[in-house]
Design goal:
The chain is mainly α and about 270 residues long. It has 11 helices and no strands. The protein has a domain of about 160 residues: MetI-like fold (Orthogonal Bundle). The longest helix is centred in the N-terminal third of the chain and has 38 residues.
Length: about 270
C-alpha cells in the first residue's frame, strides 16, 4: 500500500513537472512564431546582413556546420567502430565514459579551448576555427551513435561473415555497417541539427561577418552569433532581424530532426 502511494505521488509530481516544461516550451515557440513570422520577408533570403538581409548568415552557418560534419563524422565513426568491434578491456569503458563527458561539456568551454589552440596561433578569428569547434562538439555524438547502433547488429551476422571466410574489416564494412546504416544516418542528422544551432563556441572562434564571403580564413558569417548581436541592438529593425533569424534557425533544426525521426520510423 505504501509503495503504491509513493508511486502515485512520484507519478503526479513527474506529470506536473512535464506539464510545466511543456507550457514554457509552448510559450517560447508561440512567441518565436508570432514575432518571427511577422518579420519574415523575401528580401531576407536575397540580401546580406549589411543590406538588411540574412542570406550570407544562413550560408555561413551551413558552411561551417557542413565542414564540421566532414571533419567529425569520419573520425567519430572510426572511433565508434573501434570501441564496438575491436576494443577490449577496461580502458574501452573508460573511453566511453570520457566520450559521455565530452557530450555534456559546455559548448563555451569548447569554444575557449579552440580559441587558445587555433585562433590565437592563427592570429585572429576565422571560419576554420568555428568549424573545428563545431566538429569537436559533433565527434562525441557520432562516436556514441556509432557504438550504440553497431551494438544492435546481431552477433550472428558477424559470425556468418567470418564463417564465409571474410576478414574482420570486410565483415565490419560489408555487413555490420550496412545493417546499421539507417541508425547511423539518423544519428548523423541529429548531430548536425545539434551543432547548427550553436552560438557559444562561435563567439570566440568564427565571430560573424556582415558581408558575403566564402573565405574561411577570416571572420565568417554566422546566423547564431548575429542573432546574439542583433538582439542587443537598440533599433527595432535589428531586433526584427533577430526574430526572423531565430525563426528560420528553429524551423531548420525542426525539419532536420523530423527527417531523422522519419528515417527511423520508416526503418521500423
Amino acid at each position: 500500500m505504501k509503495r503504491l502511494m509513493i508511486n502515485k505521488i512520484v507519478l503526479l509530481l513527474s506529470t506536473f513537472a512535464a506539464i510545466i516544461g511543456l507550457v514554457f516550451l509552448a510559450w517560447i515557440l508561440t512567441t518565436l512564431f508570432l514575432k518571427g513570422i511577422d518579420a519574415i520577408n523575401w528580401t531576407l533570403f536575397t540580401k546580406d546582413l549589411i543590406d538588411g538581409g540574412l542570406r550570407n548568415l544562413i550560408f555561413g552557418q551551413f558552411v561551417m556546420a557542413l565542414v564540421a560534419t566532414i571533419i567529425g563524422v569520419p573520425l567519430g565513426m572510426l572511433a565508434g567502430i573501434y570501441l564496438r568491434e575491436y576494443g577490449r578491456g577496461v580502458y574501452v569503458n573508460i573511453i566511453r565514459d570520457l566520450n559521455d563527458i565530452m557530450m555534456s561539456a559546455p559548448s563555451i568551454v569548447i569554444g575557449s579551448f579552440v580559441f587558445v589552440v587555433v585562433v590565437v596561433p592563427s592570429g585572429g578569428i576565422n571560419g576554420w576555427a568555428g568549424s573545428i569547434a563545431l566538429a569537436i562538439m559533433l565527434i562525441p555524438i557520432v562516436v556514441s551513435t556509432t557504438d550504440n547502433m553497431l551494438s544492435l547488429v546481431p552477433t550472428e551476422l558477424r559470425e556468418a561473415g567470418i564463417a564465409l571466410g571474410g576478414s574482420k574489416h570486410k565483415v565490419v564494412l560489408d555487413i555490420v555497417l550496412k545493417a546499421a546504416k539507417v541508425g547511423l544516418m539518423t544519428g548523423i542528422l541529429l548531430a548536425f541539427a545539434r551543432i547548427i544551432g550553436e552560438t557559444a563556441p562561435l563567439l570566440f572562434t568564427s565571430g560573424t561577418n556582415s558581408f558575403w564571403t566564402t573565405n574561411l580564413n577570416n571572420a565568417f558569417p554566422s546566423l547564431t552569433v548575429s542573432i546574439y548581436d542583433l538582439a542587443n541592438f537598440p533599433t527595432d529593425k535589428a531586433r526584427n532581424l533577430a526574430w526572423a533569424a531565430s525563426f528560420i534557425l528553429t524551423i531548420t533544426v525542426l525539419i532536420i530532426n523530423l527527417v531523422g525521426r522519419f528515417i527511423t520510423r520508416d526503418k521500423g
